[in-house]
């Protein structure tokens, strides 16, 4: 399962970061997932719950934000949303387009308490 491996890598990254920044009780992790990644948010959520169960993140909430795919036409310069993986400019029907978002897979922010509390 693709999403489980991704969940494990998110958990590892967050635990490393928590160590470095001296954070305790991580309440929430917000991740941005582009629609082009083919990651199923429900599967990622499930994978996160399974993979975090035996870690310090067992009670942490994972918030998944799906980023739509957008493109910019190199011929006419218009920007537009790309749906259904149709990579064609809706304005001039050019195929010469640049993907400007949709392949994100990153941690947007971590919400936590300081260990000093
Ligand atoms: Zn165009």
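Sequence proposed for the structure above (117 residues):
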């Amino acid at each position: 399962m693709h999403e489980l491996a991704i969940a494990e890598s998110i958990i590892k990254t967050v635990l490393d970061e928590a160590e470095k920044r001296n954070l305790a009780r991580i309440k929430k992790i917000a991740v941005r997932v582009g629609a082009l990644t083919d990651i199923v948010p429900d599967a990622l959520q499930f994978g996160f719950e399974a993979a975090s169960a035996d870690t310090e993140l067992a009670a942490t909430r994972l918030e998944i934000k799906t980023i739509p795919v957008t493109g910019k036409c190199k011929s006419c310069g218009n920007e537009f949303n790309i749906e259904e993986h149709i990579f064609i400019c809706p304005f001039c029907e050019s195929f010469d387009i640049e993907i400007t978002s949709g392949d994100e897979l990153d941690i947007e922010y971590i919400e936590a308490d300081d260990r000093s509390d």
